[in-house]
Write a structure and sequence with these properties.
single chain, alpha/beta, 2-enoyl-CoA Hydratase, Chain A, domain 1, six-stranded mixed β-sheet, two-stranded parallel sheet, 8 strands, 51% helix, globular
Length: 251
Amino acid sequence: MEIGSVNTVIIDNIATITFGHQNSNSLPGETLRMLTQSIDEAGKNSEVRVLVLKSQGERAFCAGASFDELASISDFPTGKKFFMGFALVINAIRKCPKFVIARVQGKAVGGGVGLAAAADYTFATKFSDVKLSELALGIGPFVVGPAVLRKIGTSAFSQMSIDYDWYSAEWALNKGLYNQLCDSIEILDERVNEFAHKMSLNSQEAMYDLKQVVWQGTEHWDELLESRAEISGRLVLSDFTKEYIKNFKNK
């Protein structure tokens, strides 16, 4: 099973964390834990003032959970552990004492939507459509749900979760999932770089205090996201989900 990669580069007080996987930047459990560790380390690094989270390539930002790993889950502890990977990344972003900027160059599905939502500020291209497809798998967007709900509200989150259709990047911008939309990847990179450098010049103390304010009310998320991982860890064992994944992989 392909694990994927996570790399961190620090230049001018900006830590750029890049994840990648050959299957449209999908996220196996090990990649999720490497991503968590990278965010934690950058947050503690005194050289770093702001983080940029991005994925490899010019197409999909993130295809969500790895279907290969989902297909291999055969018991509840393994299922919970896998979905806890998403909980760990979201909580790492939430607890990071520095702003986390997301660079979304293409489509985001499931866990990818969760990453875009968890970031403190998210740039995307006009090609960055979004989809919460978990219900189709018989799982539901339980772990990423709190992060997405916090950004776009109950009505929009319910809409995305229930009909699991594609929504345009413009829709995501209007609902607050994205903060800025760009016409091309070149413009996206220019704006992300300019914004990250501007943030790196701000007072670290003020940015830290502002992050505490905007994340107020999420102090219980360690327990909340673990309970959500337990729901998904149970549902992924269902015959419905196993059959769906089998049919999907055989297409």
